[in-house]
From TrEMBL:
PANTHER family: TRIFUNCTIONAL ENZYME SUBUNIT ALPHA, TRIFUNCTIONAL ENZYME SUBUNIT ALPHA, MITOCHONDRIAL
Origin species: Methylomarinovum caldicuralii
Span of domain 3-hydroxyacyl-CoA dehydrogenase C-terminal: 481-572
This protein's UniProt keywords: Fatty acid metabolism, Isomerase, Lipid degradation, Lipid metabolism, Lyase, Multifunctional enzyme, NAD, Oxidoreductase
Keyword Ion transport: no
Protein name per its UniProtKB record: enoyl-CoA hydratase
A single MF term (Gene Ontology): enoyl-CoA hydratase activity
CDD domains: crotonase-like
């Protein structure tokens, strides 16, 4: 019976067949074509000789199944190929659903996408109730929607509202929540998991289905108003021109309901979506994320970090480390400087943890430590004090003397060259930059900065630390503004210039969000704080030869600092800008977009030429994860590639003629191959 590469089959003394998924070439189960081939054979054997029941389980520690093999998506060249893949999975899952015996998915760890679709084809689902189990259908994040019959089965299993909530957001849920939704029949502790599987298959309780009122929402008269409401909800987050998949999914359901006809329509819809630029670019971003994660693959045996400077950044870095399960010492000039950070940490903990014992344990992990007594126990020491060279040098002189000899010494500086800080160290090679972004809890990227002297092993360990606290580490060279601030700055300055020329702020922001940026540059500047923007601008302007617009300086001098002072370029009510309606401006939107975006792209080319970042893909990754640069465009350089490098360069030349040399194409364009 065991002639499979990716599966192991066992029959227990009750006549139940346990199918253990164990992908031979990967440490996570994925439904590649080879796996589907074998699963077809497994199912054929079960059809020929039906057992008392079937448990589908995973032998991998990582989880049940991470979904379809996304690498195979990139090899799909035409619609027929895509359609064949979907139809094949449909047929296979339908056979599983129609087996003569009951079937059960035993779920632990990741159960995502195609993996959950497989589980939904089983009669029952039992999920392990621990911190790691996550169930979800994140396909929209790749520009498609569930394509293995999951959309229909999820609606049938938990009702349309909850199903759309999961499928349109792509979010995942833990075992208990899955049980509450009806997605899992039970959420149980590890020691009863196998026993629970056996019992359910023996007793064969009726399959779960949503209550009558929920099923009624699937009826023809009620679908159109609910679909219209769903479209309005999605519109608030995703423009249909950029992200067609959620709208396609809502439409499928509006037309067919969770009927058998929706299966066929689902397959066709995914076959169409999978080849769109949006899907290809989002898949690209998925692999960029994997690549960047790879930089942090080293040993991650960290238990304690120490942060010096409990301000905006230091306080939040310590809080984040605590939430990620590390102990964090937090030091400042005196206890009074720690209070605000301790309170912020408590709020983050309450948001992240819902069980009382977890909250208490997490609070205990934050160690307010005004005297720095914890320094010798920390494996990583992060300095986040004011941006002054002498202060940082004084801090590191003391830290080097007290920290463990093997501890990482890291600075969160945004602009001071690492070499200057390292000059006071006995072993300058120990110093590395860990440049976090504000707000720490929301921004996934951390630039791992190597100075002239930084030991490569130290940089690698810093990247492993960033991974350990669930951040994406991007290796960069110590150069003014590193990658992200440097490339974002020309974009922000151009926005202020447009303002000075009389283009209304909402028109500028609208042009940027229409391009696909998560927030317009004017609102972004207000959110970051105009004083911080000005400081970065002044610092970088020198190095990059840029001009700081007078309007920015005037605002800061007038104390209009943005969200934090309730007025910057906009006025604010809480955190919400009071935007006048964006009417037509003096410039066409396309011109505004080119002025904003192409200055950013041009700076990316300069960064690449100077080898601040290793290659073009990593520039794109940094900008997508560090600034939210329109992910469906695949990153700024990829955007330029798709538009045509030569065409973008010509456009920059035209802009330079019209507006001045700040648009002059960087010499690095010469090196880019179409
Ligand atoms: P902040 O002014 O909010 O905090 C600085 C903290 O350092 C204050 O609490 C201050 O009391 C403390 N401090 C000053 N001297 C000290 C000393 N000798 N010992 C111990 N603590 C001392 O500043 P911030 O915005 O958190 O920035 C800190 C660092 O992070 C800077 O290097 C900055 O460039 C960098 N950074 C800031 C941002 C941002 O958006 N604010 C983003 C990335 C990096």
């Amino acid at each position: 019976m065991n002639s499979y590469r990716h599966f192991r089959l066992e029959t227990d003394d009750q006549g139940l067949v346990w199918i253990w998924m164990d992908h031979a070439d990967s440490n996570a189960n994925v439904l590649s074509s080879a796996v589907l081939d074998e699963l077809e054979r497994v199912v054929a054997a079960l059809e020929a000789d039906p057992p008392a029941g079937v448990v589908i389980a995973s032998a991998k520690a990582s989880g049940f199944c991470a979904g379809a093999d996304i690498r195979e998506f990139t090899r799909i060249t035409n619609r027929d190929q895509a359609l064949a893949l979907m139809r094949r999975a449909h047929a296979l899952f339908r056979r599983i659903e129609s087996l003569a015996c009951p079937t059960l998915a035993r779920i632990h760890g990741f159960c995502l996408g195609g993996g959950l679709e497989l589980a939904l084809a089983c009669s029952y689902r039992i999920a392990l109730d621990d911190d790691r189990t996550r169930l979800g259908l994140p396909e929209v994040r790749l520009g498609i929607h569930p394509g293995f019959g999951g959309s229909v089965r999820l609606i049938r299993t938990i009702g349309a509202p909850a199903a759309f909530d999961l499928m349109l957001s792509g979010r995942t849920v833990a075992a208990r929540q899955a049980r509450r939704l009806g997605l899992a029949d039970h959420a149980v502790a590890e020691w009863v998991l196998d026993r629970a599987c056996r019992q359910v298959l023996q007793r064969r309780p009726p399959r779960r289905c949503p209550p009558l009122w929920l099923r009624a929402l699937d009826s023809a008269p009620l679908r159109p108003p609910l679909a219209a409401w769903l479209r309005r909800q999605v519109r608030r987050h995703a423009d249909p021109r950029h992200y067609p998949a959620p709208y396609a999914l809502i439409d499928l359901w509006r037309r067919h309901g969770a009927s058998d006809a929706m299966f066929a329509a689902e397959a066709k819809s995914v076959a169409d979506l999978i080849r769109t630029d949006t899907a290809r670019n989002l898949v690209r971003v998925f692999f960029l994320r994997e690549r960047i994660k790879g930089f942090g693959r080293g040993d991650a045996d960290f238990t304690q970090v120490h942060v010096v400077g409990a301000g905006t950044m230091g306080g939040d870095i310590a809080a984040w480390a605590v939430v990620q399960g590390l102990k964090a010492g937090l030091q400042d000039r005196g206890p009074q400087y720690l209070t605000a950070a301790v309170q912020r940490t408590a709020r983050l903990i309450d948001k992240r943890f819902h069980r009382c014992h977890q909250r208490i344990a997490a609070r205990d992990r934050l160690l307010p430590d005004p005297k720095g007594l914890e320094v010798p126990r920390a494996e990583v020491v992060i300095e986040a004090v004011v941006e002054k060279l002498e202060t940082k040098q004084a801090v590191f002189r003391e830290l080097e003397a007290r920290a463990d000899a093997g501890a990482l010494l890291a600075t969160n500086t945004s602009s001071i060259p690492l070499e200057g800080i390292a000059a006071v160290l006995e072993r300058p090679g120990r110093l590395v930059g860990l440049h976090f972004f504000n707000p720490v809890a929301k921004m996934p990227l951390v630039e791992v900065v190597s100075g002239r002297d930084t030991d490569p092993a130290v940089a690698a360990r810093a990247a492993a630390f960033a991974r350990r606290i669930d951040k994406l580490p991007l290796p960069v060279k110590s150069a003014p503004g590193f990658l992200v601030n440097r490339c974002l700055l020309p974009y922000l300055l151009e926005a202020v210039r447009l303002l000075e020329e009389g283009v209304p702020a909402p028109v500028i922001d609208r042009a940027a969000t229409d391009f696909g940026m998560p927030m317009g540059p004017i609102e972004l500047a207000d959110t970051v704080g105009l004083d911080i923007c000005l400081a970065v601008a002044e610092e970088l302007a020198q190095a990059l030869g840029a001009e700081v617009p007078a309007l920015l300086r005037r605002k800061v001098e007038a104390g209009k600092l943005g969200v934090k002072s309730a007025e910057g370029f906009y006025r604010y009510k809480g955190r919400t800008p009071l935007k006048p309606k964006a009417g037509a401006g003096p410039l066409p939107a396309a011109e505004i977009q080119d002025r904003l975006i192409l200055r950013l792209v041009n700076e990316c080319v300069a960064v690449l030429r100077e080898q601040v970042v290793e290659d073009a893909d990593l520039v794109d990754a940094g900008m997508v994860f560090g600034t939210g640069f329109a992910p469906f465009r695949g990153g700024p350089l990829h955007y330029a590639r798709q538009r045509g490098f030569a065409a973008v360069r010509r456009r920059l030349e035209a802009l330079a003629e019209k507006y001045g040399p700040r648009f002059a194409p960087d010499p690095g364009w010469e090196l880019l191959q179409e």
